[in-house]
Amino acid sequence: MKQNELIPTYGANHRKKRVGRGNASGHGTFCGRGIKGQKSRTGSGPRLGFEGGQLSLIKRLPAKRGFTNIFKIEYEVVNVGNLNVFESGAEITREILMRKGLIKSVRKPVKLLGTGEIDRPLQIRVDKYSASAKAKVESAGGTITEVVGGSEAE
After folding, report:
1. Cα separation, 20 vs 37, whole angstroms
2. Strand ranges, E, within 28-126
3. Helix, strand, or coil here: 63?
4. Does 152 score more than 80 pLDDT?
């Protein structure tokens, strides 16, 4: 089958509505616009969002204005206090956190926050960490390494 041999399925193509071609066409005189009123005139209709003078929806819902940042990075958040489930000296990566059920997805970057206490030394490799999390991990005798795009950075 060639591209020039393709035909549209039955009912996919419709005849163009030719208005104003006499009453016998079925679309004569008023051309399907009704008799009078704003919508029967040329250039008809108010602007988009106009509600006949009623306060428009965009003004009634001020919380819905603004924008969504498409470049926002969503992190999987883990607190230092949750790391006490690991044995002393364990190396912790994104995959291991996923297996323990501390994060939901390995696709999102992981950020370690400083809530809670840690009582054992751990080797942690995460994408981001807070200053308080770093202080708590290092005071417990562990190390924390920032992983940037799959490679390590100190």
Report:
1. 18
2. 76-79, 91-92, 110-113, 123-126
3. helix
4. no
pLDDT > 70? residue 129: yes
Q: Is 119 exposed, middle or buried (0-12, 13-18, 19+ CB in 10 A)?
A: exposed
Q: How far apart are CA 125 and CA 109, in angstroms?
A: 11
Residue carrying structure tokens 């920032």: 146
Distances (CA, A) of 117 to 89, 114, 145: 16, 8, 19
Task: Quote the CA–CA distance of 110 and 95 in Å, as a whole number.
Answer: 10
Give domain 76-153's CATH number out of 3.50.30.10, 3.40.640.10, 3.20.20.70, 3.100.10.10.
Answer: 3.100.10.10
* Interatomic CA distance for residues 77 and 129, integer angstroms: 9
Closest CA to 130 of 150, 151, 146: 146
For the entire predicted model, the pTM comes to 0.57
